[in-house]
Amino acid sequence: RSSAEKFEFQAEVSRLMDIIINSLYSNKDIFLRELISNASDALDKIRFLSLTDKEVLGEGDDAKLEIQIKLDKENKILSIRDRGIGMTKEDLIKNLGTIAKSGTSAFVEKMQTGGDLNLIGQFGVGFYSVYLVADYVEVISKHNDDKQYVWESKADGAFAISEDIWNEPLGRGTEIRLHLREEAGEYLEESKLKELVKRYSEFINFPIYIWATKEVDVEVPADEDESGEEETTESNPSEEEEVDEEEGEKKPKTKTIKEKTSEWEVLNDVKAIWLRSPKEVTDEEYTKFYRSLSKDFSEEKPLAWSHFSAEGDVEFKAVLYVPPKAPHDLYESYYNSNKSNLKLYVRRVFISDEFDELLPKYLNFLKGLVDSDTLPLNVSREMLQQHSSLKTIKKKLIRKALDMIRRIAEEDPDESNDKEKTDVEGSDKDEKKGQYTKFWNEFGKSIKLGIIEDAGNRNRLAKLLRFESTKSDGKLASLDQYISRMKSGQKDIFYLTGTSKEQLEKSPFLERLKRKNYEVIFFTDPVDEYLMQYLMEYEDKKFQNVSKEGVKLGKDSKEKELKESYKDLSKWWKDTLATENVDSVKVSNRLDQSPCVVVTSKYGWSANMERIMQSQTL
Ligand code: ADP
Ligand code: MG
């Protein structure tokens, strides 16, 4: 359109579009669920606004919160339309092309190293998946605060926006028109689209319609002219008479013909899964619901879920999930972002997915949904954020979340010390096998951050802690296992911190402990140093860093004698090293092979902590 205003895509967006266009990725289906998910988001937004201002919805068809899919086979156009919030001109510029979202570069990076296009929605750039199937896309949008505009792009680095003087007024909402590529013809088949909606968008909370064409049998009067024509083509007059006679007997003169009619056909069942009884929901349904909630459409299933309701003063229903994988930026943005992954609904109405009052930061890796009956509907988000019942909800959610995680461990045969239990075979067992290790590798750090941040649940979280140790044999061990293996008379839980297990295994601090058969925990993550400043004890046992002073291994009979005879040497050492370098020089029984070792004081930083602090200031 010549009158259009032209814009260039942000470089990153342009690169992303190139990747998508040139992708040989076979699963092009994903574009549809991304568009439906955007339509659903837009509907959520207008419904939320309507809680405080009914007017925004308009009247008649405009007030119908729905999604419509239409096919135009002749022109090879697939359109998806919603009556959501719509986009102003400024929104179109901002949302579809110019301001690169943080997700764009992260996703481009992922895709260049063989990432999965399936995860596009998780990176907040799902819209651009339209270019998997279309070479030209029009976005027609009408927001209450602006005129109707058309955004269009052939994915050639630029897009254009013009006031819409060509199309029918939308009232409110957005219509995305995909001009399908030659090889994407299958998306003009109703059956294909129906299948896709069933598969990927089953749990969208608004009705999705398709303009479906049906062939129906219709009785129509037999056509006089037609038989007249037949008469003239007939060459044998006697036969002609016979036909006439027969038809004369078959009254009334009607015939059945096939006729095509079209009507809106609804494709999904909008009954919310969380309102159903957990007994009635199948594992497959929970998995599918997880996928639509999290936009994680990888093959992997969630590691666990918990579906429950709370009654009493504060009523709500919730479904929580532990994803199979941590999102790409889980710890990157840990201290700067408050984004929780729970969606908050109030009486079935979506309110927000940016409520940081629902879960503490360290549980941000969970996905799910909370639907509250207690919270007020017609107040602003800010006011809701202050509502007193949120505290109660949060407390319950944490408790349920930690229970759910504990269950992953309990059901995992690899976790059990109990030989009998481990030997039981069965498909369920197979499925649960190794799940906790998987959990730990993805989210272990979150548990550690929880121990640091959540004093009230510290013990519960400590139970979930896993580590390698001098006795764990390459596997992960828990504190409970450690305690069950403690030597008689051993009072403290021993640990050592460092950069790797390999490095720690060579440590002189271990020599004697190992020889005497004490178990020592290896902590090799930088966060472990902080962790151990908060985790002082577990089940009445204190933690002792074996590179610090205070390691007690029972009395050595010759200790006093040795101290006496090495008194002069100790003094010489101390004077030679000078007080600014060492506090004291002591004879000790903690070594076996090495002649001496540098120990840090009880309340000072460990050598490993010094190393971490140094690397942070550099
Ligand atoms: P995400 O949905 O994760 O934000 P997308 O790339 O799918 O990322 O969409 C980008 C943005 O474009 C959305 O955040 C939204 O603001 C806007 N948008 C896309 N589709 C619609 C729509 N149908 N109605 C209103 N806004 C939309
Ligand atoms: Mg989206």
The mean pLDDT is 87
Strand content: 15-25%
Weakly predicted, low-confidence segments:
228-235, 239-243
Q: Helix content range of the residues, please?
A: 25-40%
Give an overview of the whole structure.
The protein has 618 residues and is of the alpha+beta class. The chain has helices spanning 11-21, 30-52, 89-98, 102-112, 190-200, 224-233, 237-249, 283-294, 381-385, 389-411, 419-423, 427-432, 435-453, 458-463, 479-484, 501-505, 511-515, 526-534, 559-565, 567-577, 607-617, and strands at 5-8, 67-72, 77-82, 134-142, 148-153, 158-163, 173-180, 208-221, 254-266, 304-310, 316-322, 342-346, 349-352, 367-372, 468-469, 493-497, 520-523, 537-538, 541-545. The longest helix has 23 residues, at 30-52. Residues 228-235 and 239-243 have low confidence and may be disordered. Bound molecules: adenosine-5'-diphosphate and magnesium ion. Magnesium ion is lined by residues 34, 37-38, 121, 126-127.
Structural key phrases:
alpha+beta, nine-stranded mixed β-sheet, elongated, binds adenosine-5'-diphosphate, binds magnesium ion
Write the layout of secondary structure elements.
Blueprint: E1 5-8, H1 11-21, H2 30-52, E2 67-72, E3 77-82, H3 89-98, H4 102-112, E4 134-142, E5 148-153, E6 158-163, E7 173-180, H5 190-200, E8 208-221, H6 224-233, H7 237-249, E9 254-266, H8 283-294, E10 304-310, E11 316-322, E12 342-346, E13 349-352, E14 367-372, H9 381-385, H10 389-411, H11 419-423, H12 427-432, H13 435-453, H14 458-463, E15 468-469, H15 479-484, E16 493-497, H16 501-505, H17 511-515, E17 520-523, H18 526-534, E18 537-538, E19 541-545, H19 559-565, H20 567-577, H21 607-617
Parallel strand pairs: 2-8, 12-14, 16-17, 16-19
Antiparallel strand pairs: 1-6, 2-3, 3-7, 4-5, 4-7, 5-6, 8-9, 10-11, 11-14, 12-13, 15-17, 18-19
Magnesium ion is lined by residues 34, 37-38, 121, 126-127.
